[in-house]
């Protein structure tokens, strides 16, 4: 088998040693059979190479054409446990790591539970969502997550990580940061628990709409409440219009979603103290606050801008490609790098490097890739 068969970008070389796990116990057994032995690299040292590759939905991976020489764990665990209300009246729901994320979201909406509907249509597995603190249309996983059950490869022990332990931020968490520091996964997610509001049926009002584009699609004002099934339908339509809902016949969806994260720029300038956003952003570039996922308070020391805006204004339009055009920007959305049918990982990487270099040259901002890169760096 080739890793191109297991990823949404549909690139990646051969698998040398593949093991499919279908239960939490089997996944735990695999993790304990492959303990993490690497020490944290000293400052300035490069991370070690991944020793084990974990694949579930494959929606956030760009894997080299040479493939992966070590063990590959294909996570196919399934199961959803519907609990009762907690002290705040929210319904606890636990999903196994290998559950399909959008299928899980659909199931919560069908039961009239609000909290995840704005995250509809996102490819991948439940277990991957807390790693990136997946977010869209004004919602993040951190908003409703209450517990991550994981196995620590450094100790072989199962652990429960609460939101305070997770250190959530924009597209990051303890899980992602620890893997980045080591160059290898430390915490393997076994299951995730969410606390969702009982909306008394899918047709009952949801949480307030918090994203302008979504509010416009629904024909309501920001802060209005609408039925959760309508929110889900509108989000799916919006994502499909951008090529962000998987479709085997649409090469714009042969991607890893948004390839670059939105840059977060510091507003603290040494002796000059705090500066205005206009001092660090290109003229007319959008500026967004960076909020604490726990308190909701804006961080006054940083500002976030749009990677898509930077890409477009650096001269890279929809459909831009390099070389023979086997990989290109989506024809619908400049933040997605796509496989036009016969691309290699090298083709995708070459396109990413060209775009990142062009943005850096034009604006002095270095874009950071969102997918996990296996077997090479940009």
Characterization of the model:
This protein is α+β, with helices and mostly antiparallel strands and 378 residues long. It has 3 domains: 3-75, Uridine Diphospho-n-acetylenolpyruvylglucosamine Reductase, domain 2 (2-Layer Sandwich); 80-241, Uridine Diphospho-n-acetylenolpyruvylglucosamine Reductase, domain 3; 251-374, Uridine Diphospho-n-acetylenolpyruvylglucosamine Reductase, domain 1, CATH 3.90.78.10. The chain has 9 helices and 18 strands. The chain has helices spanning 24-33, 101-110, 129-132, 163-166, 174-182, 212-218, 228-241, 307-313, 345-363, and strands spanning 15-21, 53-55, 61-63, 68-75, 80-85, 91-96, 113-114, 135-136, 139-140, 145-152, 157-161, 187-198, 255-258, 264-266, 302-304, 327-329, 336-339, 372-374. Strands 5, 6, 7, 10, 11 and 12 form a 6-stranded antiparallel beta sheet that branches. It has a 3-stranded parallel beta sheet with strand order 1-4-2. A 3-stranded antiparallel beta sheet has the order 13-17-16, with helices on one face. The longest helix has 19 residues, at 345-363.
């Amino acid at each position: 088998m080739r890793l191109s068969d297991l990823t949404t970008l549909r690139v990646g070389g051969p698998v040398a040693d593949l093991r499919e796990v279908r239960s939490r116990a089997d996944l735990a057994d695999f993790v304990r059979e492959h303990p993490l032995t690497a020490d944290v690299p000293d400052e300035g040292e490069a991370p070690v190479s991944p020793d084990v590759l974990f694949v579930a939905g494959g929606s956030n991976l760009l894997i080299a054409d040479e493939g992966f020489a070590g063990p590959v764990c294909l996570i196919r665990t399934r199961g959803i446990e519907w609990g009762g209300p907690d002290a705040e009246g929210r319904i606890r729901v636990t999903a196994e790591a290998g559950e399909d994320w959008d299928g899980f979201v659909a199931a919560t909406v069908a039961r009239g539970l609000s909290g995840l509907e704005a995250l509809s249509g996102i490819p991948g597995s439940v277990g991957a969502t807390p790693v990136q603190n997946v977010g869209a249309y004004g919602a993040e996983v951190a908003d409703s997550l209450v517990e991550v059950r994981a196995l620590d490869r450094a100790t072989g022990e199962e652990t429960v990580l609460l939101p305070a332990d997770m250190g959530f931020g924009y597209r990051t968490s303890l899980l992602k940061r620890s893997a980045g520091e080591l160059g290898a996964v430390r915490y393997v997610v076994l299951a995730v628990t969410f606390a969702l509001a009982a909306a008394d049926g899918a047709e009952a009002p949801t949480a307030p709409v918090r994203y302008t584009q979504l509010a416009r699609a629904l024909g309501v004002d920001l802060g209005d409440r609408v039925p959760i099934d309508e929110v889900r339908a509108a989000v799916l339509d919006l994502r499909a219009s951008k090529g962000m809902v998987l479709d085997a016949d649409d090469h714009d969806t042969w991607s890893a979603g948004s390839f670059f994260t939105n840059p977060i720029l510091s507003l603290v300038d040494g002796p000059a103290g705090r500066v205005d956003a206009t001092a660090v952003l290109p003229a007319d570039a959008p500026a967004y606050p960076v909020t604490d996922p726990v308190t909701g308070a804006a961080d006054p020391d940083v500002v976030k801008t749009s990677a898509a805006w930077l890409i477009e204004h650096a001269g890279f339009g929809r459909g831009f490609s390099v070389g023979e055009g086997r990989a290109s920007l989506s024809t619908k959305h400049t933040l997605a790098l796509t496989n036009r049918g016969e691309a290699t990982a090298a083709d995708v990487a070459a396109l990413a490097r060209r775009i990142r270099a062009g943005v850096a040259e034009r604006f002095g901002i270095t874009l950071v890739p969102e997918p996990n890169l296996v077997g090479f760096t940009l």
